[in-house]
Amino acid sequence: MKLNDTQVQQFKSDGWLFMPDAFSMEEVEALRQEAEGIYAANRPEIWREKNGAPRTAFAAHTYNEGFGILGRHPRLVKPVEQLFGEQVYMHQYKINAKAKFDGDVWQWHQDYGTWLRDDGMPEPRAMNIAVFLDEVFTYNGPLMLIPKSQHHGNLPAGHDLGTTSYPLWTLDHATVEKLCAEGGIVVPVGKPGGVLMFHGNLVHGSAGNITPYSRKIVYLTLNAVSNYIRKPTHPEWIAHQDFTPIMPCADDALLQYSRKHRRQAAA
Ligand code: SIN
Ligand code: MN
After folding, report:
1. Residue 207 needs a FRET pair 20 to 30 A away by CA distance; which of 42, 98, 110, 217 works?
2. pLDDT string in tens for the chain (267-residue length)
3. Number of domains composing the chain
4. How far apart are CA 103 and CA 8, in angstroms?
5. Which residue's CA lies nearest to atom 3 of ligand 1?
6. Within 10 A of 256 (CB to CB), how many other CB atoms are there?
7. CA 267 from centre of chain
8. Ligand 1 pocket check: which of 102, 206, 221 to mutate, most ligand atoms within 8 Å of Cβ?
9. Does any ligand 1 atom lie closer than 6 A to the CB of residue 93?
10. Handedness of CA 171, 177, 183, 185 (dihedral sign)
11. CA-CA distance, 233 to 120, in Å (whole number)?
């Protein structure tokens, strides 16, 4: 999949792009089911909210076949290669739960703030590419983006160790107010299979989910190979240190996996 000129221009101007029909429901169905088993497992890669509900599962592409295929999917890898003009490797991979009733807030932040301070990533040449596994509504804790905020570069941030169960470099209220006065807030919503990509310096966050609708989203963080991290401080399953370029799989690989999964469940 190649981005057209309008998409490239929108990304450069606003810092984000949404492709609502990137994957079909059939393609993501098996992943939706597999995610529940992953959250139920007792592994160090699964982080939980303070009340025990799943928050995020790191590195599932390393041990789950379906999530491994998604991590090599050409519809995700190729557009990022196109924008960066080079091959990419997997810097981070997570399945964020935003569990029904219990999903907690992600405070306003820039991802590059963490990649720079905690991982020693030289430039904001890594991209978050989000794949919706559940339907994302305006009311189940969707991602909120501040368009054009990426043009401000890496902003001063404080290390929030307390608000939620996951430490994050977060922005203060005055900064968020100023950025919103310029760019407003957008909330991409849509069906499972939608794909959202956004710049590493784009300011974003999400509120808690008190609805009975979970909001699972997979995030691939694809980093340009020349921009590999220099000073990792996180475990390997949070900030990967295998800088091998990703070799994309076949375009129908996820569909074939989903069909196999369905046959096995029916057998
Ligand atoms: C993130 O910003 O890394 C995750 C936010 C979310 O899943 O709501
Ligand atoms: Mn983030």
Report:
1. 42
2. 799 999 999 999 999 999 999 999 999 999 999 999 999 999 999 999 999 999 999 999 999 999 999 999 999 999 999 999 999 999 999 999 999 999 999 999 999 999 999 999 999 999 999 999 999 999 999 999 999 999 999 998 988 887 766 778 999 999 999 999 999 999 999 999 999 999 999 999 999 999 999 999 999 999 999 999 999 999 999 999 999 999 999 999 999 999 999 999 998
3. 1
4. 33
5. 111
6. 13
7. 33
8. 206
9. no
10. positive
11. 9
Q: 234 Cβ partners below 8 Å, 6+ apart?
A: 118, 119
Length of the chain: 267
Q: What are phi and psi of 211, to 5 degrees?
A: -90, 165
In angstroms, rounded to a whole number, what is the distance separating the alpha carbons of residues 129 and 193?
12
Report the separation in Å between the CA atom of 204 and the middle of ligand 2, taken as the mean of its atom positions: 6
Task: Output the pLDDT for position 154.
Answer: 95
Tally of CB atoms within 10 A around 70: 27
Look up the pTM and report it: 0.97
Q: Which domain holds residue 105?
A: 5-266
CATH number at 84 reads 2.60.120.620
User: Is the CB–ligand 1 distance for residue 94 below 6 Å?
Assistant: no
Q: Separation of 201 CA from ligand 2 center, angstroms?
A: 10
Strand order in the sheet with 16-19: 16-19, 195-199, 126-132, 217-224, 88-96, 54-58, 46-48
Residue nearest to atom 4 of ligand 1 (CA): 106
Residue 161 has a pLDDT of 83
Instruction: Tell me the C-alpha distance between 17 and 79, whole Å.
Output: 11
